[in-house]
């Protein structure tokens, strides 16, 4: 796979998750007490994509937090802003780094569990474009599938992109589809895009697996909790059901939260 590289798109603002993303970029929102970006980098590492020669991450919104989280583990592309360039524009800004290779592009906010990315790479024709997809009974996007967070792009498609605000749907995927050069590879596990509070909560609850609770080692739980993820240094004295408690958040005695994300001392985002 030396002729392939990987890009994690982590520049987005996460507007649909506000106010959760007012001070934290969407890519660093925790799922199962692990930032989404960390989950994406780990997933790529299992395929052999590690280090700044093989993996790049783009950043824009609250970019300094993304840069600090990545460190020297990947090549960093910090977009000038004030708004991100979009998925295609972000890839275009990395053309010199891609340098003729095929590129596996993943959205940092894609939650994938129970399946592998390797089928997306197996037997790939470098002249074609591939998408990871999950069957969708409602509102399918490509045939009977909905996009599942990762795509595999040939250099011939990347070379023509410009670093202007646009997305991969219009700039790459639909043109490849029209040319008969697009294939959807079915993902064998669970996919959620985490872009809405409802899906974000669902991803956290899925990350519980067979557990009823996931509590960070330095969190304090003195209340009652059921189907909950409790983050680092959080303090919970109330009752929780289907709740994500963010790092350093507080749930006081007498509080009863359900289908909610708690942040800070009293901030709630309903996910019901």
Features:
single chain, 272 residues, 7-stranded mixed β-sheet, 5-stranded mixed β-sheet, globular
- Using the coordinates above, name the CATH class of the largest domain: Alpha Beta
Q: Given the structure, what is the number of helices?
A: 8
Relevant CATH superfamily of the largest domain: Spore Coat Polysaccharide Biosynthesis Protein SpsA, Chain A
The radius of gyration is 19 Å
CATH-defined topology of the largest domain: Spore Coat Polysaccharide Biosynthesis Protein SpsA, Chain A
Topology:
Blueprint: E1 4-9, E2 30-31, E3 34-35, H1 36-45, E4 55-59, H2 63-70, E5 75-78, H3 86-92, H4 95-98, E6 102-107, E7 111-113, H5 118-121, E8 129-135, E9 145-153, H6 155-158, H7 168-178, E10 182-186, E11 190-192, H8 197-207, E12 213-215, E13 220-221, E14 224-230, E15 235-236, E16 239-245, E17 250-251, E18 256-263, E19 267-270
Parallel strand pairs: 1-4, 1-6, 4-5, 8-10, 12-14, 13-15, 14-16, 15-17, 16-18
Antiparallel strand pairs: 2-3, 6-9, 7-11, 8-9, 18-19
Helix pairs in contact: 3-7
């Amino acid at each position: 796979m030396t002729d392939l590289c990987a890009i994690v798109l982590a520049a987005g603002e996460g507007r649909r998750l506000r106010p959760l993303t007012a001070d934290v970029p969407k890519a660093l929102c925790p799922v199962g007490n692990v930032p989404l970006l960390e989950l994406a980098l780990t997933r790529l590492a299992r395929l052999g994509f590690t280090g700044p020669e093989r993996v790049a991450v783009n950043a824009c919104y609250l970019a300094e937090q993304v840069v600090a989280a990545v460190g020297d583990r990947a090549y960093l592309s910090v977009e000038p802003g004030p708004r991100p360039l979009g998925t295609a524009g972000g890839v275009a800004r990395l053309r010199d780094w891609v340098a003729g290779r095929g590129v596996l592009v993943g959205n940092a906010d894609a939650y994938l569990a129970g399946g592998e990315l390797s089928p997306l790479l197996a037997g790939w024709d470098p002249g074609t474009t591939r998408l990871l997809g999950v069957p969708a009974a409602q509102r399918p996007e490509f045939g009977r599938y909905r996009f599942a967070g990762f795509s595999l792009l040939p250099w011939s498609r990347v070379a023509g992109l410009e670093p202007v605000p646009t997305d991969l749907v219009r700039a790459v995927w639909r043109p490849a589809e029209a040319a008969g050069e697009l294939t959807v590879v079915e993902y064998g596990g669970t996919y959620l895009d985490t872009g809405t509070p409802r899906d974000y909560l669902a991803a956290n609850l899925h990350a519980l697996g067979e557990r009823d609770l996931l509590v960070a080692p330095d969190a304090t739980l003195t209340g009652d909790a059921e189907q909950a993820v409790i983050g680092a240094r959080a303090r919970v004295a109330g009752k929780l059901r289907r709740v994500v408690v963010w790092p350093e958040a507080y749930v006081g005695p007498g509080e009863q939260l359900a289908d909610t994300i708690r942040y800070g001392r009293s901030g709630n985002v309903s996910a019901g």
